[in-house]
Design brief:
316 residues, single chain, elongated, two-stranded antiparallel sheet, 3 domains, 6-stranded mixed β-sheet, alpha/beta, Alpha-Beta Plaits
Length: 316
């Protein structure tokens, strides 16, 4: 089986190609497809719910059985090696302690050599056990690196490199809690590129990918360090704006629109121009992050119904 991080990358790339969110159901299906665990499943619905908190970072559905099994084997090895080390440093150590006294009383050459041989053999056994522990520790460190890499991949959109919807959930929940704690404003903007399908149909999916990357590059160049851009799914993006009210968020998004209009994508000598619609919402008292996103999404829907290429702010 391929190394777990490579499998994770392949699965996430596959989901990105299909424009599907990185939900547990979607990930599991395409993980099984790529690893050959089961026949290819039909593409899941794009409306699949995001992964819940019940799946921890060490879930075998997420990282693959190979990494989980490797962790289990390493833990077993460390446990057994620790037992061996205790034995090699325990009983043999009691045997070695009287050796200097015996050596002092030893008169015959053979007796001295036998005693030294016993001490050397015990010391070698202890040394081998320590080496096994060191190797097990190195394997654990490598496993930790792979797990961290998988975790980062699951929270990152493979096409644009920004945070994906799964990674957004925890971050936005923390920002909402912080906003309530310090009585600060928090706004989000839900953005959808207008008529994106026409770009794919007219210029090809590669041009569509480049359009998404171009939008991200322009948007990121105008955001503060505390702001976060998320690929929500397909051609939809969410901008998290801490310490920002709805009116200020509208000004930020308006600057995005002007920058996109002034810097169209040039691809193979062709100019690809596009616009976007946006819905903005500011966190209400007692509202959670999920409710905040739903209101921004509803405002985005109203912007599309109003003819697209415009910004709608959700009611207070």
């Amino acid at each position: 089986m391929k190394p777990a991080p490579n499998i994770a990358r392949l699965v996430l790339d596959r989901l990105a190609e299909l424009g599907l969110p990185s939900t547990l159901e979607n990930y599991s299906r395409y993980f099984r497809e790529i690893t050959g665990a089961s026949p290819q499943a039909a593409p899941p619905s794009e409306t699949s719910s995001p992964v819940g908190d019940s799946e921890g970072p060490f879930s075998s559905h997420v990282f693959g059985l190979s990494v989980v099994e490797a962790a289990r084997k390493i833990v077993d090895t460390v446990s057994q090696t620790a037992d061996d080390l205790a034995k090699n440093i325990g009983d043999p150590n009691r045997e070695i302690k009287p050796s200097p006294e015996i050596l002092a009383r030893a008169q015959e050459h053979k007796q001295i050599l036998a005693l030294l041989g016993s001490v050397i053999a015990t010391a070698n056994a202890m040394h081998r056990t320590v080496e096994q522990l060191i190797q097990a520790r190195q394997a654990l460190d490598q496993l930790r690196v792979e797990l961290n890499a998988n975790q980062a991949l699951l929270h990152q959109d493979p096409l644009t490199g920004i945070l994906n919807r799964r990674g957004m959930d925890d971050l936005l929940a923390r920002e909402a809690a912080r906003s309530r704690r310090v009585s600060g404003a928090l706004a989000v903007a839900m953005i959808d590129l207008d008529h994106f399908k026409q770009i794919n149909d007219s210029h090809g999916h590669s041009a569509g990918d480049r359009t998404l990357i171009h939008f991200v590059e322009v948007a990121k160049s105008m955001l503060r360090e505390t702001d976060v851009l998320v690929r929500y799914g397909g051609e939809e993006f969410l901008v998290i704006l801490p310490e920002t009210d709805a009116a200020s968020a509208e000004r930020v998004v308006e600057r995005f629109k002007q920058a996109i209009a002034q810097t169209p994508l040039i691809l193979e000598g062709k100019q690809i121009s596009f616009t976007f619609s946006a819905g903005i919402a500011q966190l209400r008292g007692g509202e959670n992050s999920h409710g905040l996103v739903l209101r921004a999404d509803q405002a985005l829907y109203e912007a599309k119904q109003a003819g697209r290429d415009c910004i709608i702010i959700a009611g207070p």
